[in-house]
Design a protein that fits this description.
By secondary structure, the protein is mostly beta strands. Helix content is about 15%, strand content about 45%. The protein is built from two helices and ten strands, in the order αβββββαβββββ. Strands 3, 4, 5, 6, 7, 8, 9 and 10 form an eight-stranded mixed sheet that branches. Strands 1-2 form a two-stranded antiparallel sheet. Helix 1 (about 1-10) crosses helix 2. The longest helix has 15 residues, at about 85-100. The radius of gyration is 18 Å and the shape is globular.
Length: about 170
């Protein structure tokens, strides 16, 4: 939610429409009721790995870490696709922007309004992977509605948080 709010502030035009609702283009697929079969272009997709305890710590609450992958791809904004590199670079810069500062308060979103859980979540800077590409259909809302080569990137970061339960 923090990254969504930051994206809305940084680039209000970077949105997606899912389940009839338009919102900032940060998607955690496992949290969605219905997700597109093909990932939407020009959006950030968050995937989580299993959590584990950080070794060598003291205290009453365990410090945990999870690997997080944030992926994004683009076809560019014009039919020829000649701006794909610039568009991907803009997505990369937005990702770096929404990840700063590298912390947010931990919230319980199972209730409305959400409640503060009294600790923070913090993370490492995103480590951008290599640019890759694939053939794939263009999103119908893009110019030309034809075929193009998709440019994509994945970023890895580690997210740290304290458990809600005391370990002692």
């Amino acid at each position: 939610m923090a990254l969504r709010e930051r994206l809305a502030s940084l680039n209000p035009q970077r949105t997606v429409t899912l389940n009839g609702v338009t919102r900032p283009a940060v998607i955690v697929a496992e949290n969605e009721l219905v997700i597109p079969v093909e990932p939407l272009p020009d959006a950030f997709y968050i995937e989580w790995a299993a959590s584990r305890t950080v070794d060598g710590q003291d205290g009453s609450r365990a410090l945990m870490v999870m690997d997080c992958v944030i992926s994004h791809h683009t076809f560019g904004t014009v039919q020829s696709g000649v701006d794909r590199g610039r568009t991907l670079a803009a997505l990369d810069m937005e990702l770096a922007g929404i990840c700063q500062p590298a912390r947010t308060s931990k919230q319980d979103f199972t209730q409305t309004p959400s409640t503060d859980l009294g600790t923070n979540i913090f993370w490492t800077a995103p480590q951008l992977g290599a640019v890759t590409g694939s053939d794939g259909p263009r999103n119908e809302t893009l110019p030309g509605k034809g075929q193009s080569i998709r440019l994509e990137r994945r970023a890895l970061l580690k997210v740290f948080f304290f458990t809600e339960v005391n370990t002692l």
